[in-house]
Amino acid sequence: MLRRPDGWSDRFRQAGDQLKRAADRGLEIRRDRLSRDDKPQHRPLAEIQAELDSLVGLESVKEQIRSQLVFLEVKARRKEHGLSDVATSQHLVLLGNPGTGKTTIARLLAEMYGSIGMLQKGHLVEVDRAGLVGEFVGHTAAKTNRAVKKALDGVLFIDEAYSLTPQGLARSNDFGSEAVETLIKRMEDHRDRLVVVVAGYPRLMESFLRSNPGLRSRFSREIRFPDYTTDELVQITEKLAIDADYELAAGCAATLHALFESVARSDGFGNARYARTLFEQALNRQAVRLAESRQVTSLDRRAVVTIEPEDLKEAAAMLDG
Ligand SMILES: Nc1ncnc2c1ncn2[C@@H]1O[C@H](COP(=O)(O)OP(=O)(O)O)[C@@H](O)[C@H]1O
Ligand SMILES: [Mg+2]
After folding, report:
1. Which ligand is nearest to the CA of 97?
2. What pTM, to 2 d.p., does this model score?
3. Which of 69, 78, 138, 297 is most solvent-facing, going by the fewest CB within 10 Å?
4. pLDDT at 67
5. DSSP state of 3
6. CATH architecture label of 230-320
């Protein structure tokens, strides 16, 4: 008969308790993870829509997104009624110059898809050429697949998609076309779990979409982002100021108007991004002005929230230079 050492049962009980506690902790962690993965927290649709509405201009873009959402909601109701589901892909092309709001809209769209349950997570994974195209044979498909995997249940956002198919480069010398082919395959395979959004300059996107015969038909919609007008850029700057707890003093609107009118609107003009850079530069100018006029420690609330027209003018001069 096996002789148990003294105190065996006590030690056994202690070890058992330890194991149980560990298991409880483990279970707790796992339960935690489950609730995070299986049921991600989504903002209510109304809240995301309010954010969309609060964007300056973009009326035609907003209109197309609203109609897309209504379509998806009807589709969901049809499913609830047991009606047949017409397979539709939601892959999108966003055409517009830099700073016209493409990334902002793509992010909100991803969230909306998550909120209505079309995509489980509704996150956005942004990649460029370097995130998809490899440096040696076999590397590209693996890289593209990895990006797709990361974006599953959300949106894969490919900025400047035409960099995948550079003009003038012999196809055989470039792995970009391999990335496109891999992508096309995954767009079909994961139609229900992945939305691919490609974005960039309108003219260059045109040649990208023509670069592979199967490409264009994979996208259900092409949304155009117009350049912002001068008035819209002024409003965008005002919104940036409000969102950041600043106030624009009297005369700022007129100053902004004149500044935006005077910058060259070439293809490379940064649109809202220029407005943001100008605003951020103005914050620096304001700080310098305040430091020159008074002890920084004695500044009142009024002083630190106010942006003066001269702050904007100096900021623009610095950006010019
Ligand atoms: N309509 C808009 N209203 C307010 N802010 C905007 C608007 N469009 C763009 N912005 C702001 O301008 C910046 C650039 O926008 P982004 O979406 O990155 O442009 P893109 O992706 O087209 O280059 C962001 O900081 C964004 O918040
Ligand atoms: Mg962008």
Report:
1. 1
2. 0.82
3. 297
4. 92
5. P
6. Orthogonal Bundle (1.10)
